[in-house]
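Weekly structure sync, notes
Attendees: PL (lead), two postdocs, one rotation student
Agenda item 3: pending single-chain targets
PL asked that the sequence for the first pending target be pasted directly into the notes so everyone works from the same version. It is reproduced below exactly as submitted, 776 residues in total.
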Amino acid sequence: MSQPPPSSVPPAAVPGSPSTAPPSPVSNSSSSAPSPFLGEAVIPLVNKLQDIFSQLGSASTIDLPQVAVVGSQSSGKSSVLEALVGRDFLPRGSDICTRRPLVLQLVQTSRRPEDRTELVEWGEFLHIPGRRFTDFAAIRKEIQAETDRELGTNKGISEKQIRLKIFSPNVLNITLVDLPGITKVPVGDQPNDIEARVRTMILSYIKHETCIILAVSPANADLANSDALQMARIADPDGSRTIGVITKLDIMDRGTDARNFLLGNVIPLRLGYIGVVNRSQEDIIANKSIRDALVYEEGFFRSKPVYHNLADRCGVPQLAIRLNTILVQHIKAILPDLKSRISTQMITLQKELASYGELTESKSGQGALLLNILTKYSHGFQSVVDGKNEEMSTTELSGGARIHYIFQAIFVRSLEEVDPCDDLNDDDIRTAIQNATGPKNVLFVPEVPFELLVRRQIARLLEPSLQCARFIYDELVKISHRCETHELQRFPQLRRRIEEVVASFLREGLSPAETMIGHLIEMEMDYINTSHPGFIGGSKAVEIALNQQRGAKALASKDLHDSERPPSLPEKQAKARAILARTNAASLVSHEQVASKPSAVPQEKAGTPGSSGSGSTWGISSIFSSSETRQPVNGSSKEHVPARSFAEPAQGPLESSFSSIQLREPPATLRASDAQGEQETVEIAVTRLLLKSYYDIVRKNVQDLVPKAIMHFLVNHVKRELHSVFIRKLYRENLFEEMLQEKEEIAVKRKRCKEILRVLQQAAWVKFLLSFDHHC
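Predicted structure, written out during the meeting:
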């Protein structure tokens, strides 16, 4: 960058060159290679990027290099900034003055002496494009007015920036952000947590690695308690990007100086300290100019021998040079990564914008868009069911894997855990057997109770089978929700229509699946195939039951022989009662025989062979493969003895001494007798074996056929026909406009995404970025 000749611009007017010294410090620092190019190129480049990204506000995620000015109230921040500019332009007062971040871009301009019509110094606000402020008092008023427009006249703060550019030949290229001063006590309408809010705002700027921290602290206060340095240490613990500014050196206590502060002996900073002398409040009230203040500052440092060998660390001109140099170096180090971040964000935004799609007004375009959405949905549904989805989860089962889990781990396993006889006790089976014989005595185990009981157990399989179908239906509904593409989110009406069609189609597939499951169970119940090769059969069941009975008897006999102790008194009493009961029963039988007719004697004799035969063998029905034949109970005798009529009067001398016998009425509910004989025990055991054997056959059939029915009528049917159903019910020209009505928020997101992408494209094509790469 080039400096105007001393004759055209007084040295005292240029921050960086004192009134009595030649402008060589500034010119030397700015004329040494490569500083002129970097100072003139990279800082304006970053300024341009800042202007571009300021259009995005908080939406921008790109952190640009900048210098943030941090300090407490009355620390001298405003005086330092005005000294760097050389003009009075910031609001002042006893309360908090900076209530919004002020992004101040100092742009050095050159002025030709012969062109007197060219503006020398002016300011421009980003919120008032095209208007130049040549009166710096008007700049102060506009800052205050813009602050009030956002916050009103109270003392609140806002994170919304005010961006100001100042063009002058008397400045160096620097970009600073003036942040609100740290305050302790709220005033006016300020909230009680004003200090926390200010600190949060400051940290939001200085926490980024791209930010240089200008920590302003007054010399007449303890540096160890400086609010600015404390905030800087939080964001920059090693002090690698913090510059310390010590203000008000001229009002320190007599006999003290800031030498140790400037040398970094108290709190070391890698970028060092700069000491400056501010205008006092009295000077400001007296309208003392910045130029006169710089002359006074120069005279102060010359009059203090303690600062003579610290000339490079004293004065506003040295602060301007230091800031310019550090900012240029900082930008040079960060700019390559900045390009990479801009490119990465552009790619991300282009993908996001593509997901929002574009609207079309033509019917053909709308039809193509609708067909594309329906096709993607159908293919997505099929790929999720088949396990070919690209977004396959690695943390949980999904899609078709959940369907397989329901079939095998839930349905099949649940049926295997069911005992067909768990809800049948011995009394239930005995009652069923006796009911099946009708008025006759139980001579053998009939088929009717077996079929009745096995049908009851088969019927229990219907409910879990239907429940399995419902589970699969629910999973298909979940899969349909997973198939909703990002593009489908744009159109709520189309999404609702698709959900309705899918739900209806799934219900249509569920109905025949449930019907088929019902038919499967009814088929098993309608025909009990006892000839199935897997069925145990009657003979085998009887053999197993008899073996179990013999084993039980042998075990009981062994236990009886092993017991050598004499029976106890209760056991003796029980045996006595049993003998007495048998004696009474025998007496009752003898009395009945005496009272019977003499013709009953031949019948008893005739029935003796049959009676003895029934005691030695078991009568078994056809399902037990029995070939035994039985004689009639009355033998083959054809004798007919007329029975006495109930109305016939009793005869004999003893009959008159007996009173008439009255029978008690049968109860309303009858159960099988509690006394269970050996034959009944075998019959129950045989029935249980037959039930379990046949139930296992049916269970295996159901475990195999129910999943097949669900897959055929529901899952595969939906996969095959979903796209055709979409075309038939949704692809109608009169519905295009209604279904493709876009959500308002999607339109807003698309507009915002386009805006950010446009800004990033502007930033990526800034010509200074390319020239920087070429020269560096």
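Discussion points:
- Residues 98 and 343 are 35 Å apart (CA to CA).
- The beta strands are 66-70, 102-108, 122-125, 162-168, 174-178, 211-218, 242-247, 273-275, 444-445, 619-620.
Action: rotation student to compare against the earlier draft before next sync.
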